[in-house]
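hey m, so remember when u said the tokens were messed up on ur end? i reran from scratch. heres the input so u can diff it against urs
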Amino acid sequence: MYVGSSQQTPMPYAGSNPHASSLGGSTATVNQTLGWVSNYTVPYHYRIARWRGGYENSIKNDQLVFLRTTNDKFIKGGQNNMPNYFHNQVHTMVNLPMVNYAIYKDWLQFETDVANGDYDQELGRKPNGDFTLDKYAYFMKFYVLERWQFLGTVINEGAPMAADTDANTEHRLINSCIRGRQTTFNIWGAIRDGDYLYLKLCLKDTKGTDFQLDLKNFGGRMPDLASRRCFQFVPFYNHTYKRPDINGNSEPHHYIYVGRCFRTQRGVEMDYDEEETMRRCREVSHMAARSISFEILVDPIEA
């Protein structure tokens, strides 16, 4: 509970000088507003571009979403090399399975480019063929962390698309919660009230058929069969406020702070194994059908 702004608020402190700013002084004008801060939400709307294949239609309420900060080759239109943080531009928005698939596709292309020598200068190729820089760390920095920005959760869609509109010219208007109290799907598992929720970027064995991006009727999987060990966003949480340690001796990884669990379901089994967790990070229909929504306090800027 908070007290709103005031003008010339008196200070009725015991033992203060009765001739100045006290109970003995003249009454001052006070404007006060009583309210609650536990329900606050900061919404922000974005016009989002179309993906080839219409996969942006899988972005629905309660999903975690990201924004693309540079031009995206998977969409139609867009501004080349322009930050997508302005309301008068069309943004590239993705949910968790979509961003994981985009990372996988970028990694396949990156591997090909490295093999062709396109990154010899950036990675510092030595005469024996080794690199001065770690290609995984390079990819994580420039292809993931500087390309995708975690935004928050989807509240609703401001202007639903009509079935007969032209997908080449129409865009969706998505209202997102960038900070505050909102609901989202529980992809973390056995969390409890007050837990600190993260997305961990780490290396996972991945192939294209792991992904299902069509929300309609458990639509078909993506066609790519190549199996690679590449970066993926997976859920991570702490019961206490202790930031995850980044071990410099292990494989490259990174943590993105999402927010805190405000209220979750009681009496429901939510202890997922790794296979089930990865399905909720890669399959839109599975995530929506199997995950229970809970209340989260979105606060990514606290990280």
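this time it looks ok to me. Helices lie at 96-115, 120-123, 135-145, 274-282, 284-290. if urs says something different then somethings off w ur setup not the seq
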